[in-house]
């Protein structure tokens, strides 16, 4: 059988032959994305079934390949979503990020474009869609724009479209927001509420508090770590032999949908891996926890359930919220402690050091989302402006206007 020269992603004539009693084989030459011809074959108990099996194998081979073979301008948007979701599996994304992308695509974007082909998705239609999403919230529009841009960007790389229409839409206007840090009084009130929870004289059902939440809060305040990163700390990440003590941020806790919670051996970003010196109150909280896991392996989690499994971030958030609600404190999340740490550092040492503590590569994100704006102007301005006080001019100053200058009124 010869090797016909076919376009990339297609095949030549299918040859079906009997190879033995009750066994047939279908074969053809398939031209792969690299331009090379490869023999593809499939077998079954009849000739027609062998041909059907071969075509199914060829279709699967095309789906695995990239480029315009898989997608064209006439492809339905639903097909692009299928290809995009498969492509996400190949990216080095955190499982939580991948699940978020898939959820946003299925709930926000797909309902609006599922009846369209890629050719029909224009800048005007995308722009109108994003404006409709922004009527609900900026965050919703932003999430929708991100996943739609990723999917159509893939279609552009596959040469199914000539231009990504998302890039031509109007920029989403971010609503004015202001980071809010906790005052020392608020922090102490939170500490008192957590410490006193279920420790009074009244008898309440359920297990007694084990003290972990108090320690978790002290670590968040003193290290600026995210809640998932605090829960991922191991014995080997904590060094109490130095002054000040240090913790190494090298992981986070994730809870994939439908799967057990586990420690991911990397934090949110590569720049988040760092060793942080912590204040004495954080070191003391960690010392108390390390005593509880004395004798355990170095990779034992500092914070864990009674069964030794990782604590989930959602459970910690819910427990903190429920405790504070009982004493009338609202609006506090684990991220509030991260903002408080950043703002405290900024007030004394500037935004650069705050960004370094938080693991940011620049101060832009730190200033925008984590540092509470300081309304106070440097008091030195008052001292400088004293020079303009009535009668403050030196005695030798001339009262005549300077040459070439207009006189006073």
Automatic annotation (TrEMBL):
Keywords for this protein: DNA integration, DNA recombination, DNA-binding
Signal peptide span: none
Stretches assigned to the Core-binding (CB) domain: 75-156
Gene Ontology process terms (BP): DNA integration; DNA recombination
Keyword DNA-binding (UniProt): yes
CDD domains: INT_ICEBs1_C_like
Domain Tyr recombinase: 177-383
GO-annotated molecular function: DNA binding
InterPro entries: CB, DNA_brk_join_enz, Integrase-like_cat_sf, Integrase_catalytic, Integrase_recombinase_N, Integrase_SAM-like_N, Tyrosine_recombinase_XerCD
Pfam short name (any one): Phage_integrase
PROSITE patterns noted in UniProt: CB (PS51900), TYR_RECOMBINASE (PS51898)
Keyword DNA-binding: yes
UniProt family annotation: Belongs to the 'phage' integrase family.
PANTHER family linked to this entry: PHAGE INTEGRASE-RELATED (PTHR30349), PROPHAGE INTEGRASE INTD-RELATED (PTHR30349:SF64)
Protein name: Site-specific recombinase XerD
Organism: Myceligenerans xiligouense
